[in-house]
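Students often ask why we bother encoding 3D structure as a string. The short answer is that it lets us treat folding as translation between two languages. Here is a chain of 331 residues written in the first language.
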Amino acid sequence: MSEATALAHPNFALSKYWGKHPAEGNFPAVPSLSITVSGLSTRTNVRFLASCSDDRVVIGGREERGAARTRVTELLQRVRSAAGDRRHAEVISDNDFPTASGLASSASGFAALALAATRAIGLDWDASRVSDLARRSSASAARSIFGGFVELPDVAPGKTAPDQLSARPVAPAEHLPLAVLIAIATDAPKSLSSSDGMRRTLERSPYADAWLTEAPRLHERLRSALLTRDFVAMGELAEASALAMHAAAIAAGVCYWDATTVEALRTVWALRNQGVETYATIDAGPHVKVLSRPADALRIRSALEATPGICRIVEGTVGEGARLVNPEDPL
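And here it is in the second language, the structure alphabet:
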């Protein structure tokens, strides 16, 4: 028996990844820069067993048999091929936050799976290679291998996809202290996956070309703002990237927002009108993630708690990358 357990956190993109390169291999069409966020966690245990006749995948206490299982077994097969090992595996994974709801559970899930699977089978890969493995299953998972502020380069349309594409750290967590307030709108899973939403956006949106042109520009400006520790510019650009992404998607009939999303945005904008430097970002789901300086977090939390529709607030900071843990450790 070979076994390993890994813990990973989701990441939220400040400059958004939305759209895939047409080549096989799950390559992003635009670059992105994210923060790995403490406060939400996935723990995944992988055991390779000679006695198993097939892979077994249990997520959140439920044995998976459909598309979710297929994505896991495809990653396991890549690991088996690299190791020259034919054993099947048992995978047990749990989140302490809603799954498939727009809170980047695939990012933390596949980051934890990639690290646990490679270590369990005996592959001593560095973080860059584990990141590439995770990206092939979920592009955003490449970023959750690392902590702090993390960049995932793009493969722009028209360019040839490389053999390997990994995320890379840009700055450690302490480079720019942030509070991250996650306004959870629902615990229900979203009705449209991110992959399908991206595909529909690029196929149908009249603003798809504008998004593919503008996203890299926003990314470069945001990256520069981060490196110079310009929180205001970074926040403004993060919000602009999120709104541009969703504008392109909504024009294609892809809408992840609900009424709570709009109310949370209004709260953020009202606080900013009152002089509080706070900014919103939204991924492929209804939840609004609010960025602020740590000193302003309490005031912002109070305002969000009074916002109609918000189920609860999860408060986090810029956190660590994926790491091995003991199976008995609590989430």
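Translate back mentally: The domain at 2-174 is CATH 3.30.230.10 (Ribosomal Protein S5; domain 2). Keep this in mind for the problem set.
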